[in-house]
Predict the 3D structure of the following.
Amino acid sequence: MSDGTDNHDQAPGSSLWPIGFAIGIACILVGLVISWPAAVLGAAVTIVFGVLWIRDAARSHAPVDSAPAHALVDGTPSEAQLAAEEQHLETYGRAGFLTLATIGLGGVIGAGVVLPSLGFAVLPSFTGEGIETNPVDLGPISNFPEGTFVITSFTGSKRQGDVSRRTAYIRNNGLSAEKEPSFTIIYSRCVHLGCPIQPNGPAFKDQAKTYKDVTLTPVKPAGFGCPCHGGAYDTEGNRTAGPPVRSLDRYAFSVADGNLILGDHFSVGTVAGTAADAVMTRYPVAYPGVHVDGIERFLYPLPVPGAGA
């Protein structure tokens, strides 16, 4: 005879926590490429859903007290009571233990595989192992005639030597509206794939000068061009044709004791105006082929130190 009660353990229902956990992992991986806030959000989602998943798994395998309660018989517990007490002695069954052990072991293995891989793949870009560009003394301002571009070759880092040799196209714009010296300093790498650009005009090598290890050659360009893939730019560095997606990168500058000092390298979206009246937004150095403004900038990797130095 049966009293109609269901004495069989019910299998735990489906859980959405593993899906949330997987979404969190995906957000971390995408965030490492696109945006650190997205990576942090993904880590938070992963932790929350991971805890909920483990908690749900633990509850689903907790023992259910289905034994009927009986009164003591002659002051001694009945066989049913003894069986229930034995059931309570086992906090988790073997299935529950194996589930939790599998989840925990999988997490440890996953961390052991993913974290070192991410460390070797990502961290070197942020540890200052790229090409250095220290402030460079380019010599007296008189080396740069007003209104004339000068092909300027220099060593970016004395410690790294010739491997840090760079070229910039520098034009003395005279004084700005604030009566401050103004210079246009364009980096010589195409923002398509990083090929060296060339001035579209004659270079006057017979007028070349040398200041320390800096070489200065006047040039009269109508613009700049990339011989590799046909990228073309005007004299302000704005793209006029070809595959580049933004204006040419530039260098900041300062003037100390009458000498022009080359500063930090930065990226530019678009330049409005010309010469001393030019207006632009300064962005961190971006890889060639990467947008720095507009909605497209969210689809590219974060710039890292030394990416385009």
